[in-house]
Amino acid sequence: MAAAGLGSATGTARAAAAGLPASKLIRVEGNTGPAYFREETLHEGTVLQSIGFDNVNRRLYVAQLIQGGRKLPGESAAVSGATRDLHGDLSITEWTLGADAADGSGTGRITGSMYLRGFGHGVSIGVEPSGSSTYLWTEVDAVQDVKNGTSRGSRLCRFRFASSATPLDATNASLQKFTPVPGSVNNTASIDPITNRLVVRYSLGGMRYRLYDLAAARAGDFTAPLAEIAEPAIAIDRARFGYPSFQGYAAAGSYLYLLHGNSYGTMQDHDKNEATPEILISAPGEGNTHLTSVDLNTGQIVRTFHSKAGYTLPFREPEGLAVQIPQPGNPEVYRLCMGFASGETGGQRKASVYYKDSLVQP
C-alpha cells in the first residue's frame, strides 16, 4: 500500500480571485480504513453506484441500477437489466443510520426506496438536507450509449426523496432541472456538507469540475463558479494496476477527492498494444483501488494512494465517495467514506462502506 506519489493536473484551475479558504485535508494514505458497515443488502441486487449522506437527519442514500426482471407500476412486462442500464433506470435506497455509538456509527436500517426512470448511470448523487426532508441532486435526461450498453445524464435535477413503488420519470414536471455549463454532457453532482457547496462534474473537451454556492445553484444561478478545474490524471504503476475506472468523487472544503478502481479479476490491455496480452490489473486480496486528493485552488494532485480497504470482500468493486459528519454538532470532524460492492457474480450484490478520518492542516 505504498503511496503512488504526486501527479499533475491536465489543465489549469479557474477559481475566485481570492481563492477558496484553506481547509483541513483528509489523508487518503494510511491503513486499510475501518468499516462503517460491511456487506449489507440493498433494495436491488445490483452493485451500488454512488452514496451520499444527509448529515442532519442521519440518513444514507445509495444509488443503483434497477435489477433485471423487475416490473414497475405502469409497465406491461418485466424489464431486463441490460435495458434498465441503457435507459438509465435507477433505484435509490434510504438508510436511517443507527445511533449506537457516540461517533455516529451503526448500520441502521432501510426506511425507504424510490425508482427513477430515464436519469442515467448514478455515478454520483448530491444529498441536501432541508428541515426533516432530504433533496437529491442527480443526473437526468439520460443519453443512451448503445455501443457500451449504458447511458449518462445530460443535465442535473433536484427533487425531494419520497419513498414509493411508483417510478419518478425524467419527464416529471416536479423536477427542477439545470444546465450549469452550456454545451456540456455527462453531468453529475455532489454536495460538500462542510461548506454547503455544489460540485458539478461534466464533460466539455475533457472531464472537468465546477464548484458553486449551493443556495445560488438551487435558485438556478450558475454564473459565478467558486472554482473550476480539469480532472487530473492519476500517476500510478500502470504495469501493476493498469488504468483503473473512475468510480466517484466528493469535496470537503478546499479539496476534491477521487476514487478509481475495478472489481477483482479485471483484465486489461494496459499498454494499449494489441500485440501484447491483457494483464490482471485488480488481483484478489489487493485490487487496484486508488484514492486521490486534489487541491481545488490549483487543480494539482496532493496525493494518490493505493487503498486495500475491504480487501477481504468477495468481488470487491469500489463504487462511490461521500463526506460524512458523524456528529452534526461538531462539523469540524468529518470523514471520507468509500462504497464497495461485493457478492458473487449472478447473485445478490452487497454494499459496504469504509472510511478515512485522519484530518491534517496542510
What is the topology?
Layout: E1 3-5, E2 25-26, E3 35-41, E4 48-54, E5 59-65, H1 81-87, E6 90-96, E7 109-117, E8 126-130, E9 133-145, E10 150-160, E11 168-169, E12 176-178, E13 185-192, E14 197-203, E15 207-213, H2 214-218, E16 227-230, H3 238-241, E17 246-252, E18 255-260, E19 267-268, E20 279-280, E21 290-295, E22 301-306, E23 317-324, E24 335-342, E25 350-356, E26 359-360
Q: What does this molecule look like?
A:
The protein has one domain (3-360): Tachylectin-2, Chain A. The chain has helices at 81-87, 214-218, 238-241, and strands spanning 3-5, 25-26, 35-41, 48-54, 59-65, 90-96, 109-117, 126-130, 133-145, 150-160, 168-169, 176-178, 185-192, 197-203, 207-213, 227-230, 246-252, 255-260, 267-268, 279-280, 290-295, 301-306, 317-324, 335-342, 350-356, 359-360. A hairpin with a 4-residue loop joins strand 9 (133-145) and strand 10 (150-160). The radius of gyration is 19 Å and the shape is globular. It is mainly beta. The longest helix has 7 residues, at 81-87. The strands form 7 sheets. The protein has a 5-stranded antiparallel sheet, with no helix packed on it. The protein has 3 helices and 26 strands. Mean pLDDT is 91; it is low at 1-17 and 100-104. Residues 107-354 form the P68 RBP/TagC-like beta-propeller domain.
